[in-house]
Design a protein that fits this description.
Strand content of chain A: under 5%
Helix content of chain B: over 70%
Shape of chain B: rod-shaped
Oligomer: heterodimer
Largest interface: A-B, 41 and 24 residues
CATH architecture of chain A: Up-down Bundle
Structural class of chain B: mainly alpha
Largest sheet of chain B: none
Distance between the termini of chain A: 19 Å
Order of helices and strands of chain B: H
Number of domains of chain A: 1
Number of helices of chain B: 1
Distance between the termini of chain B: 58 Å
Radius of gyration of chain B: 16 Å
Number of strands of chain A: 0
Largest sheet of chain A: none
Low-confidence stretches of chain A: none
Mean pLDDT of chain B: 92
Helix content of chain A: over 70%
Order of helices and strands of chain A: HHHHHH
Strand content of chain B: under 5%
């Protein structure tokens, strides 16, 4: 199937470029003086966080349109974006504590940004569990669309939590009003990484969408149970 | 400057493992679905 091949190629290019990000971040980007080498986790943590949030917004938007149009392609896209978002959210929730331990002195604290991000991950997991628990495709799509819209509504709280609550988590230094508060060399590495994570998101979603489509064909033919 | 390079290495390895592992999982699922 052409879509599987396209997704594989995009993913493969994304993984090769990810190796390039590693080389650039580790060898050709200056070390931040106050945080030391641990600050370089920023180049993976923040792009993953952005895509974990954008993926849920896309799940929500696709879900809204699904409820109006009942187009199965939108439901398939929402399911694909949710699975990929779960992977990126897992990266955020593992790299965050690894960065936090040397800088804050603790792996985890129940502050607003961290708690909202954990809640996003649990919403993703709940969304995937809900989909796997309902055999009827129309009911599965409808119920998961409602949960997807709820997930989308949580995303602004994650981004604004550092402004709304007292928190250990630093304020945004790139996605904020005004110019990014980063030197050019660090900003270019971060932008490269954001581009690679974008490519990986697209590659993963295209492949996952194709897998869903193929499984639906097999389900319709009665060869397998629902995914 | 603080000595915390081991945390950075752990994070970079972890991200590589998660992304490569997921890519492999998708590859295998697609292959299984394409099998006649």
């Amino acid at each position: 199937m052409r879509m599987v091949r396209v997704g594989r190629w995009i993913t493969a290019i994304g993984l090769v470029l990810l190796a390039g990000v590693y080389v650039r971040a580790l060898s050709f980007t200056p070390v931040e003086q106050s945080q030391g080498l641990a600050q370089k986790i920023f180049y993976l943590h923040v792009p993953a966080a952005i895509w974990a949030e954008v993926a849920m917004v896309l799940v929500g938007l696709a879900s809204i349109f699904y409820l109006f149009t009942k187009d199965p392609r939108l439901d398939r896209f929402a399911a694909s974006s949710a699975e990929v978002g779960t992977v990126f959210c897992a990266i955020v929730l593992t790299t965050g504590p690894i960065w936090g331990k040397p800088i804050w002195g603790t792996w985890w604290t129940w502050d607003a940004r961290l708690t909202f991000t954990l809640f996003l991950f649990l919403l993703y997991v709940g969304y995937l569990l809900l989909r796997s628990a309902i055999p009827d495709p129309a009911m599965r799509a409808r119920y998961s669309a409602v949960l997807g819209i709820c997930g989308m509504c949580e995303v602004p709280f994650i981004h604004l939590s550092v402004y709304m609550f007292p928190t250990l988590h630093p304020m945004p230094i790139v996605l904020q009003p005004g110019r990014p508060k980063l030197p050019g060399s660090m900003l270019s590495t971060w932008l490269l990484s954001l581009g690679v994570f974008t490519l990986l998101y697209v590659g993963f979603v295209v492949q996952r969408y194709a897998v869903s489509y193929l499984r639906e064909q097999l389900e319709a033919a009665g060869e397998v149970g629902h995914a | 400057m603080p000595e915390n390079g081991n945390y950075m290495i752990a994070a970079y390895i972890l991200v590589g493992v998660i992304l490569t592992g997921y890519a492999l999982s998708l590859h295998l699922r697609a292959r299984r679905s394409l099998r006649p």
